[in-house]
Each structure stands twice: as structure tokens, then as C-alpha cells.
UniProtKB/TrEMBL annotation, chains A, B:
Single Gene Ontology MF annotation: protein-arginine N-methyltransferase activity
Any Gene Ontology CC annotation: nucleus
A GO BP annotation: regulation of DNA-templated transcription
Cleaved signal peptide residues: none
Domain (PRMT5 arginine-N-methyltransferase): residue spans on this chain: 308-477
Keyword Methyltransferase: yes
Name the UniProt record assigns to this protein: Protein arginine N-methyltransferase
Naturally occurring in which organism (per UniProt): Globodera pallida
Length: 718, 718
């Protein structure tokens, strides 16, 4: 069986085959059924030859699968799928199992419900014994309370739903809602994934024009799409069996990562001619391979990053190196610096010396950008006016991290001809150096202190700290920035934070909250996340806080925003995704706004403000997101909650999250504290560094995601 | 630089080069020192070309390294090892760092101690900034209390000690004790490893004849051996530089795994002729490659397994499959069964039917062995007497696991011509089946219920449960078994259990103790461990508990043993390693006794009874190990402690571990309990299954270890 195509570097889609549907008729012969149950190796070889990469086989054997239960005390045939016919590694690798078809714990017949309950447990126990990792189970009713109870207690399940709600006995709910109700009954376990079994007629929620409804599946653990052979069309003009356009488009829309698979089956056609089935597999594979939506990256995601705290921690060389690799960002900075220098020198006299401060210079990328900018002006002048620039530039690099100072000194010697004045200092403590004439007042200050949510690395506080040494005319790059939020749906992100919550409780984990000893709620932190399995619930992104520099009036940096979003019906609010836009100088901007993302930039993942629970809204509703940026003497923190009007007309207000910065608090001062905690932290950093190596790979994915969102956006608009 | 030879499947030893020793003289020129500090890439290339796989370079640069501190307020030269000359991944991969030579926090001069303290922190902080994972530090005094305090708080260190205690200012302690004292001061942190810098004269503790002293290094995280070029001899008859015999033998003895490396340096010779250095590297590599002691496996070890509880859990197919792969074990069983059958049929009449029960048949390996045994007797008879066996064999396979019953039925159909009677039952409940004539009383009962410590999977209790259905003449295979213990030293195993202790406290972990809710001490459990980094403290292994079957007199299976060992001076007791010997029938035995290990058998790792703390004994001492096997209505557990006479003549008695089975309790009954706990446990099982895939690899290693121990043993004896 030529399975596991992924091994060969290249991507080969996973296509499975549901064995039992094909053999439904022969299976009634006891002998034939028992023979097949013992022929798994042969089946693997045969279907592997056709192009399948795994098989789905009834865990209890075929005779038991097709047994018709009667209320006469008869027991079903015993489980018959011998383990010793194949080694356990191969079971795990190539076989998924399905429950016996008659098992229905939610049957209205009490005797069948009871019988189903017992045999469900027995089959699941046997799957565990075999080492089979995944069980496929078809949902039979729009409400399956007893099944949910059973599933909660066991293994991993792939729950299959048709794309037609009426097949599950309802016309009042859509398929997504039926699934949501079911997984909620199952405690939203991360052990559950969902499959869609495409029907010939698709419900309107699966219509591509219905983007707001359809994109909810992006927020679910959709791992499989099941296709019956009868869906394929074999035209005379087209000898290859192909799927109808609507089905093809739906698959293209829904399959967005390489871990998802397609499962084929045939309940009607007998395959005397194996080549037709081969063609169907080929056709399904081509459909996946030609899908531009599929992310290149299929590894496990790096997950959640706590906010960087460059003020209270010293960054290390690896972090600097990673961020320096964002060429796009520095090209924009260079353009902004060039424009500012040009404006500053418009009326400059000969021998004017422009003083330029790079604040938080790190290992020097902005120093380099400033040098480049002046050189560009020089060569332009030379080219246009055949003369040289008459003004000089005095560059000062200010950095508090004493290790990075060593890097700056190296660059100064090796690359900058010792032309840069390097100052080891917190940028908020430069007054004495200016007062004692060690430094001149700057004409231009340049910094890159922004986090994923703009101000979250305390750029406003740092730049305000420089105000005392500025001239009235000093230009600040950046000039201003604004952050934005938008509501999202995502089961996966909610589950991930629940997992973090457990580990945050761990004593080994260092609290990010105000006090080292405070109990820290993972759901009350803002994260930097490369988001996957999520969808935006609205097509708008609303501005939140804005900051302008220089802040000559000394306005407070505390903020309070109340932002309203009208959510569509049948959605589940998980939290709010945050991003920002910065005006570096005049019309030169950088943006992580989903609709205006700066192309090829990869310095920032989105920020995420989670809610403590998932909020399901059956009807359209207006939700208000209330967020505050609070400040005290030592630091800064966000507090947030939501408000909406319930179906009863009552105003619902959720508890304020991260009240008083208990779970997450951004400190204003560097803490030099070598202790066990720091040693432990450095081990965590080592682990994080490994994550960061993943970052470049993720950046690719990120660009892909953004591109896809932009495309979706454009398609929706057009 | 041709580093990382391990990548190419084949094993290439790691050889490092200590840069600063070589350049000590030139380094005094400021210019040259600063030039070298910026030439790391070139150095990597040059030394890589010679055959080195990593470099050790002073973290603060050469000038700072060689600075001579004076008590006049002068500061040392600033750190000078620019990070941007090489990308951070390469720093991590190819560079280890050494602290500046003059740093000595334990200096008797208070000003130097203080200066050292401050600059130690600064250099370590810079190493962290660079992303360098390991710092080399040479011990300067036999007692280094302040250095230990500093090290405790930081990163990973390789602590280098000479093989001559007088170099550290003492003739009263041996080098191992100096190291033990130091790591104890450092809280026995797992972040520390040790290196031995071989001196021309080796202290007597490094003499190969002094095995009891030398083997203590097996129990330490010995990661490096450092050699100065001056140790190599270049004879006229031997053009290749080689090490003296004593040094070669010592390296062969100490280097036992592939993660260990050799570090070369030269403090005297200048290398005008690079080829001599090349030859020294070649010579060091050959020394490692020709070393038969080095274990094949160099991956991280699978670690600790909790005891299997086949009585209270159902094993799964993977576990059965793993154990079935031990051919040697089943060949011995087959021989034993054959001998028993021959004895039983000595006076058998024609048409006698011998009833053979396989108790706990699993998926049937012992059933197969019984069938094979009879077939062998048949063909012997045919060959010798030209006639057929006249007696029949009635095989009954008893198994309580309903899933394994399905496997047995498959084998019965496919391999055993339905000749075997399969009974799903606990072996302790067969009386009713015998009384009702469903089963005949057995002439022979066969079982394989032994764990790593013999009785720990409750074989005595299970077999006693069969007593009511036996005939007076029934033969039991096995007939008897005895377990053994021996004291061991191991920092690594102690550290590993300390780590387990943390995770055992975790609520997600299922308690193995008497009560589900009881607090479980990891140090109070007996483990099954593929041991590494340990040594036996004595050359004897003492018997502990013995059991005989059938137990017709119904003797109690409770046991109490008090075993004495006389430990050598300067050793550190970690716990006791356990193993067993079983007499299957007459002279056919299986053994995991270190000196009598059954060749090629791999079903059992050693058992380990840890102590709660490490016990260091400066003088020879007699330690008594007190161990009890206790039983109550529901299960069985071990309790243990030690006793010895302290240097003050007072008897010391340690607290009884696992009192009342609080931390580990082997249950007598199967618990069918589907709950969240079980679902979680099944996820743990999945993880464990991955470990089990490692098991086969470990078996190889295991055989290696045993072989090595046997070899060492033989060498010592001869």
C-alpha cells in the first residue's frame, strides 16, 4: 500500500475508502463477510494500489455491522476483526474504524438505546485494544444527547454529518448548529473532529454566496470530507469522473490545510472496472492539489506567545535576529526617514548638523536604515544636481540592553566607520545627558516599539519619557498609531487557552500578572497568536485606541473604548482579534489590518483578546466590546468585557477580565533579578527559541492566511 | 565546518577544540586578540577542516580572558565577542564558551571574589544573549562554595576537574568526592555536567584496577574528557601521535555513550604544522570508534515505566505484540513444557489425555509453545522409535481480557485447527467450570505472570487462586522464582524521580496508590527502568523473596527480608536495583540476575526501589535494606527502608517508604470503569505506546548494557 505520501517531501493528499458501503450486498453471506474481516492486509494492498492512503473498516466486522437489531433478545454477532492478521503499527497507520451501523444510543426504542449503549462501549474498547486511533461515527439525529454522553468518555472520534439538515430530521436548524449543539454536549472536547458527508443537494448554508455562514466551518476541527461515488459525473465529453461544480467549489473552500482528508465510498456502484475508481481517486487528488487555498504548512502550529516585555526583560540575540529579517518593515522605515530628513533639510544651511536619535536601537537595524536614507539622498542629489549634501547627520543610538550595546559597538566599528554615538541608557533617562551637553537635542527621533496590538509594548510611555529633551520642531517616527479589533469564532483557540489555563496554574510557570504569586487566568491574557481554525464574524474591523507623537500636551495614555459589532445569526463568539496601523511619516504606513495588510511584512502575528467562555447566539445580536487601557506607577494593563441584550431583553454584562492587571501586567521598569525563577525562565526561553525557529515557516503560512482572507474579502465584495 | 557528523546515520564522535590555550601568547597583543574575537567564522572553518566539531571560546573575548586582576580598582576589559559576526543558530550549534580565566568567586582575596562575582553574572548573561547553550568552567579549589551559589542560578555548565586532586589543593579527598561535594552544593541540578581534564599523572582512583572507585563515574553526568596535546606521544616507531596506555584505557572505560565528547587543547605546542594536530584528532576519533563499550543507542532514554497492572487493567494488542517478540523467552518455555510433558507421559497408557492449562494466555504465545513442544516430542518419537505418540493433549487457554479472547479465537481457527478450548475467565474463578465438568482438572498449568521484580505482577496470588482445581500431581510451570536486589549509585536516576515527583503531583496523573485521591510520592514507587548513568555499589546481588508452586500448603505470600550490603568508602547510595530468576521446570531457568542474565532475552528491564534522598558515605558502611511484601483483601504492596550505623555509632533508620501502599498498590481485581479518568488514561497509553516503539531500540541498548556489565565483571574477576 503506497500510503503516507507526505514522507517524500512533496505533498500527497490523504484519500480514504469506506470499505463496508462497497460490499454491503456480499456481506450478507456469512462466509464472505468473515473472509473479508480476515483479509485486511489484502484490502490495504488492493486499495493502496488504486491510490487510497487509508481504509475505514467496521470495528466489529461486516456481519455485525450489517446486523438488523430486533426486540427479541437476540444478541448481535460478536466482534470479528482479528488483530493478529496485521501488526499493531499498521493498524494504527492505515486503518480508521467505524461503529456498527445499527448502534444508536438515541433511538426512541428504549431496548435499542440500551443495547446500543452496551455495544458502543465494547466496540470502543476493542478499537483501543487494536491501537486504532480514530473512530468514525455518523450522526443519526439532529439531537443526540446519549451519544454525546458516551463519546465524552472515550478516545478520538470523527463525527460525520450530512450537508443536508433534513437527513438528520430537522428543517429548523442548520447543519453547523446541529454540530455545535453536539460538540457542546460533548464538553467541546479536543478529542472530537467533524466530517461533512456531501449530499447531492446541498443546503443553502453550503452555498458559496453565503460566506458568513460557510466560513463558520473554518472555526471548526473539520478534518474530513466524505464523497459517495454516485456524486461523480462521467460525461461523454469528459471521460474522467468529475464532481459537480458546486461540490468542487465547496471542497475548495473548505479544505484549507494539508491535514484534512477526503473519504470516498460507494453505496451503489459495484466496481467490476477498477479503473473507474482509480479515476475518481485521481480526480479527488487533483482537486486538492490544484487548490490554491491550502496552506503550505501542515505541521503543528507554534501556538501562543505571551506578550514580549522588552521593558522589563532584556531581549536576546535570537529575538533581535528574527525581527531584523523583516526587510519590508525596514524598507518602509527607510523611506519614512528619508522623507523626514528631506523635510528637515529643506531650508538647511551649509554645515547644519541634524541630530537623529534611534531610541531602543537593539542591534542597529534602524541605525542602518537612517544611514541608508541619508546615502540615498546623497546619491539623488549627486544625480540631479551634480553636487553633494551640505548638511551632516549626527546619529545617536540609545539602547538600555547592555548586551545589545556590544552588538552596536561591533557594527559601529565594522560597518558604520565609528560614526554613530552609542549610549547605554533607558530612553526615559536622557535629560541629564542633554543637560550636561553630552548629547544635543534631536531633530528626529526614530523608534520601533510597537507590538501586535500597537501600544502593548508600552511605546506611548517610552516616547513620552523622551519629551523633555525634544525641540519644538522635533519629528517623531512613528507619528501615530491606532489599533483595531474584530470579533472571531474559533473552537480551537478556545480549547488551546483552556489547556494553557491548566499549565498556567502550574507553579513552574512564571506569572505575567501584577504579582508573582497571583493566580493567573490564561483566559484573561492578551496573546500573540498565529491564528488557525478561526473565522471573522463580521466583515469590519473597528478602531480602538489612537496615540500621537510627540505628545507635547502630555495627554494621558489611559484609554477606554466601547466598540459595537452586529453578529450574524447562529454564530459562536470566542474573542476579539487585534491588530494595528502605524503612520511612520506622512503617507508612509505599516499595517496589520486584515484588509490593508502591508505586503510581505511578517513582524507581527495578530493579538487575541479571548473571552472566558464561548457565546452562542442563535439570532443576530449587537455585541459591545468594552476595553480599557489602564496605567499606574509601575505598569500598564488591559481590562475587557462584553455586553449584549439577551433574548429576554435584559442587558447581559460579562465579568471584567484581567481586572487590576491580575493576570497580565506590562511592567514599566527593567528587573534585574537573577534567581531560580530566572534560570527557569531561561529554560523556557530556550524552548521558545525553538518555537521561534518555527516562526519563519509560520510567516509563510501567515502570508498565505492573510492572502486568503484578502481573496475571500475581494470575492465577497465583488 | 564539517560538524554534526551524527546526521549521516553513521556515528561520528564529537571532538572540540579549546581555542584560548593555543593562542595564549599572541593574545597579549591587543590588536591580535580583538582580531581573533571577530574571526569566529574563520576559526570554525579552519578547525572544522582539521576535524573538530565544535570550538570552546572565551565568552568575554581573549583580552578579557587573559586579563590579570589587580587590587587597584582597574576594571577588566569589556566583553568582546560580537554576536553579529555569525547567525545565532551557528553560535548555538558550534560554540561552547568558557568563563574568563581570572574569575574566581572563591578567591581568598575579598576584592577578587567580589569582582569575580559581578563579572561571572555579566558573562553568563552575555552567553544567554548569544544563545550559547553550554559554559565550560574549570574548578579552581577543592571547595568552591560561592561558585556553587552562582552556578545554581544559571544556565547549563560543564564543570571541568583535573584527574589529580592535588591540582585542586587537597591530598585528603579524591576527585570524585570533590565533584560530589560541588554538585551537592549546587543542589544536584540537572543543568550541570562534569568533564575530566586528564593529567599526565593520574590519581590512583583513575586506575583501572580500582574498579569500585572508578565505576562511580558511570553514575555521574560525565559529558566530556579534556586532553592537552602534550599528553600525546610521538614515537619514532609510531609516527601517529598516540596517548599513553593508561590514558587510552581510562578513556575506553569512561566513554560509554555517544553523547560524550573529547575536547582537545594545547597550552604548550604551537601548530606550525597543522598535520600533527590533524593526526591527534584522528587518533582521538579512532580511540572512540574502536571502543566496544560505547552503546549503540544515543537517543534520549524512554525513562520510567510504572509497573504494569495486568490484573486491574486490560493490556492492549501493542503490549502483547511487544512481549511476544522475545523469542528466547518462549524457546525456554517450550523446552520446559516439553520436559514436563515427557515426565508426565513416562508411564502414560495409550489414549491418555493430558490436560494442559495456559493461564493468562493473552494472544496465545504459550499455547503455541505447548503445541510446538508436543510436535517436537512427536517427531523425536517418530525418528527414534518409528512410531507415534499414543497420548493426546487437551489444551485449554484461560484469559480474562475479552479483547484478547478474540485474538485467541482467530489463532484457533487459523493456526491451531480449532484444537484449543478457549475460556474467558479470571483464572481464580475456574472451580465452577471444573465442578460442572466443563473443564477437566489440569495435569500441567503454564503461566507467564512475572514482572521485573518477579512477583510484582501478582503471580503468587493468581496461581494460588488456581489451587482448588489442581490434582495432587499437577505440574506448575514456573515451579519457583526468587527476586534479588543490589545497591546502586546514580545521580541521574535520582534527578529523574525528582522530576516525576512534580508531575505525579499533577492532578491529571492517575494515582497508582491505594486511594485515587491520595498524594502520591514518586520516590515511593517501584519502577521498571532501562537504567543508564548508574553503577552497582557492590559486586554481589542478594536474594530477597522466593515463591514455590503449586503452593499446596497455602502458605502466605507476605514476605519480609532484611538484606545487608557493605558499601565501599566514598560512595553515594541512590536505591536498589531489583531482578529475578525463575525456574520454569527442573534445570530450565530464565534470569535477569546481572551475573547470570539469560542471553538475548529482552522482556524485562530492571526494577528500581529508589530512596527518598541520596546517602553519601565517606567511609565503608554496612547498610541494611528492609523490604516487606504486604497483602490485604484488595491488593498487595511493597514497603521499604534502610538502616545503618552512623559515624557517631548511632543507628540510623530511614522512614518507611510507601507505607500502607499509599503511593503504589497493586490491585487484585479488574476495574471496569469508564470515566473521564479512563479516557485520560487512554491518552497516556497512547503516549506510552510511542515509548514502547522505542522499546525495541532500547532492548538493543539493554543487551549492550548487560553485556558490558558482564564484561566488566569478567574482567574484574580475572
Amino acid at each position: 500500500m503506497v500510503m503516507d505520501g507526505n514522507k517524500n517531501g512533496g505533498f500527497s493528499p490523504n484519500i480514504g475508502w469506506i470499505v463496508h458501503r462497497d460490499v454491503a450486498n456480499e456481506a450478507h453471506t456469512v462466509h464472505w463477510a468473515k473472509f473479508l474481516d480476515k483479509s485486511i492486509v489484502r484490502l490495504c494492498k488492493e486499495y493502496g494500489g488504486i491510490g487510497f492512503t487509508f481504509l475505514i473498516y467496521p470495528i466489529g466486522g461486516l456481519r455485525r455491522f450489517f446486523w438488523k437489531p430486533k426486540n427479541n433478545g437476540d444478541a448481535p454477532p460478536p466482534i470479528h476483526l482479528p488483530d493478529q492478521q496485521m501488526s499493531t503499527e499498521l493498524w494504527t497507520k492505515y486503518i480508521a474504524c467505524s461503529l456498527s451501523d445499527w448502534i444508536d444510543p438515541d433511538s426512541p426504542e428504549p431496548w435499542l438505546a440500551q443495547l446500543s449503549n452496551d455495544h458502543f462501549c465494547q466496540e470502543v474498547e476493542y478499537a483501543r485494544y487494536l491501537g486504532v486511533q480514530k473512530m468514525l461515527i455518523g450522526l443519526k439525529h439532529f439531537s443526540s444527547r446519549r451519544l454525546a454522553e458516551l463519546i465524552k468518555q472515550h478516545l478520538h472520534f470523527l463525527v460525520l454529518l450530512p450537508t443536508k439538515a433534513s437527513d438528520l430530521g430537522t428543517v429548523e436548524m442548520d447543519v453547523w448548529t446541529i454540530w455545535r449543539d453536539f460538540r457542546t454536549l460533548c464538553g467541546n472536547s479536543a478529542r472530537l473532529s467533524v466530517g461533512l458527508s456531501l449530499t447531492a443537494d446541498l443546503d443553502s448554508e453550503f452555498d458559496l454566496h453565503n460566506d458568513l455562514a460557510l466560513r463558520r466551518w473554518y472555526a471548526e476541527p473539520l478534518s474530513s470530507i466524505s464523497l459517495d461515488y454516485s456524486l461523480f459525473i462521467c460525461g461523454t465529453d469528459n471521460p474522467l469522473p468529475t464532481l459537480p461544480k458546486a461540490h468542487r467549489e465547496l471542497i475548495n473552500y473548505l479544505m484549507v490545510n494539508r491535514r484534512q482528508n477526503i473519504v470516498l465510498s460507494s453505496s451503489t456502484v459495484q466496481f467490476d472496472d477498477i479503473s473507474r475508481l482509480e479515476q475518481a481517486v485521481h480526480s479527488a487528488k487533483q482537486l486538492i492539489l490544484s487548490n490554491g487555498n491550502i496552506c503550505k504548512n501542515d505541521g503543528p502550529m507554534a501556538g501562543f506567545f505571551d506578550l514580549l516585555q522588552p521593558l522589563s526583560d532584556n531581549l536576546d540575540s535570537t529575538v533581535y535576529q528574527t525581527f531584523e529579517q523583516d526587510v519590508t518593515k525596514y524598507v518602509h522605515y527607510q523611506r519614512a526617514i528619508k522623507a523626514a530628513l528631506r523635510d528637515l533639510t529643506q531650508q538647511a544651511h551649509e554645515d547644519t548638523e541634524l541630530v537623529v536619535f534611534v531610541l531602543g536601537a537593539g542591534r542597529g537595524p534602524l541605525v542602518q536604515a537612517a544611514i541608508n536614507a541619508r546615502q540615498e539622498l546623497e546619491s539623488e542629489k549627486k544625480h540631479n544636481e551634480q553636487s553633494f549634501l551640505t548638511w551632516k547627520m549626527k546619529l545617536v543610538a540609545v539602547e538600555k540592553n547592555r548586551n545589545a550595546i556590544l552588538s552596536l559597538k561591533y557594527c559601529n566599528e565594522e560597518r558604520w566607520s565609528n560614526s554613530v554615538q552609542i549610549v547605554q541608557s533607558d530612553m526615559r533617562s536622557l535629560s541629564s545627558l542633554v543637560d550636561s551637553d553630552v548629547l544635543n537635542r534631536p531633530d528626529l527621533i526614530i523608534s520601533e516599539l510597537l507590538g501586535s496590538f500597537g501600544d502593548n509594548e508600552l511605546s506611548p510611555e517610552c516616547l513620552d519619557g523622551v519629551s523633555p529633551i525634544l525641540k519644538p520642531s522635533t519629528i517623531c517616527i512613528p507619528q501615530s498609531y491606532t489599533n483595531f479589533i474584530t470579533p472571531i469564532q474559533s473552537l480551537h483557540l478556545h480549547q488551546s487557552i483552556a489547556t494553557l489555563n491548566r499549565s498556567k496554574g502550574d507553579e513552574q510557570c512564571i506569572s505575567m500578572g501584577r504579582s508573582k504569586n497571583a493566580l493567573c487566568h490564561a483566559s484573561d491574557c492578551c496573546y500573540v497568536v498565529c491564528m488557525e481554525q478561526f473565522c471573522f464574524l463580521v466583515d469590519t474591523v473597528e478602531p480602538c485606541f489612537s496615540f500621537y507623537h510627540p505628545n507635547k500636551e502630555g495627554n494621558s495614555n489611559a484609554r477606554h473604548a466601547r466598540v459595537r459589532f452586529t453578529l450574524p445569526p447562529n454564530c459562536e463568539l470566542m474573542g476579539f482579534s487585534g491588530n494595528f496601523e502605524v503612520c511612520l511619516y506622512k503617507d508612509i504606513n505599516l499595517s496589520t489590518h486584515p484588509m490593508r495588510y502591508t505586503k510581505n511584512m511578517h513582524s507581527w502575528f495578530p493579538a487575541l483578546f479571548p473571552l472566558r467562555q464561548l457565546y452562542y447566539f442563535p439570532d443576530a445580536v449587537t455585541v459591545l466590546f468594552d476595553i480599557q487601557r489602564k496605567i499606574d506607577a509601575d505598569g500598564c494593563w488591559y481590562e475587557w468585557n462584553i455586553e449584549y441584550e439577551g433574548s429576554d431583553g435584559q442587558l447581559f454584562r460579562s465579568e471584567v477580565q484581567n481586572a487590576d492587571g491580575e493576570s497580565q501586567y506590562m511592567k514599566l521598569r527593567y528587573e534585574m533579578a537573577y534567581s531560580f525563577a530566572v534560570a527557569d525562565a531561561s529554560e523556557q526561553l530556550t524552548a521558545q527559541r525553538r518555537d521561534e525557529e518555527q516562526m519563519r515557516r509560520i510567516y509563510d503560512k501567515m502570508s498565505d492566511c492573510v492572502l486568503r482572507l484578502l481573496l475571500t474579502q475581494t470575492e465577497t465584495e465583488s
